[in-house]
Amino acid sequence: MIRVGIVGGTGYTALELIKILLRHPDVCITTLTSRDESCPALSDVHPQLRERLDLNFSLFEINSFTEQVDFAFCCLPHAASAEIVKQLLDRGIKVVDFSADYRLNDAATFEQWYQVEHPDAARVGSVPYGIPELFRTEIKNAELVANPGCFPSSALLPLAPLLSQNLIESTPIIIDSKTGVSGAGRKPNLKFHYPECNESVAAYGVGQHRHMPEINQIIARVCNLEISATFTPHLIPMDRGILSTIYVSPKQGVDASALQNHLKDFYREETFVRVTDMLPKTKDVSHTNFCDISIAQCGDFAVIVSVLDNLIKGASGAAVQNFNIMVGLPETTGLV
Predict the structure, then answer these.
(1) pTM for this one?
(2) Could you give phi then psi for residue 159, rounded to 5 degrees?
């Protein structure tokens, strides 16, 4: 059994991670940390796990933590995560990091968009990006993997194969995404309270969302192509899920049907990406590690519809997929 520790275990993605790992046949969760000095029981923070895992949270202490684990998932906020991750790597512990700290190509871009000095700048740009369908080879031999953002996953999975084969123009690319409220995390915030967001749809982060450089830079890594996608997220009054509607211009002589067939061929051997003939909806993938994609023609544009569960394929499911690859287990273990 592989002993696993979770750093920062109180949030929604940590809850989903724990639920997946509890059904994983090769994993034993040995320790959970929180920044709450009262060190509550897991079942008090996540009542869904009552009588499923008898652990209390503890404060992170590097010696105690590394004595109990072979592998770590770090679920801390941006910037706070890297400070812990570098300590774990120095002790020989492999890590999947949920934050944005290692996703971008350089520390300067990170500091521009996150407005904080990077605690481990030397590693930025050399860490594999955790979409296995695109970066499996790099992930396999990695000590650290940067788990992807949920919005970028929904956009990169359809866009990267099409751009890499020069089937669509690099501009314009318009990504219009809707997400459930859990994407904002568990920390209380007025605009995510029920009376504020129920029966309302709101755009946010227009022109300044932190996932824009992530999408653009990862496309550059995969395709060796510079793009500047227009990305606008919207908050939808539902618990979970992402639906991204992506508008692209096919190259001359290419239509939506040809794009769809290319994606079917590209993902033919991939368990967790399904290219469908019917336009998908978020309920098709809720509580699963699948991303469903379909493409329709609309005048001169091809319209890509991509859906995933932001807490699973957009976070914890992808993390376990990466973990399985890093430790040499079948990629689907614990996920199907």
Answers:
(1) 0.95
(2) -75, -40
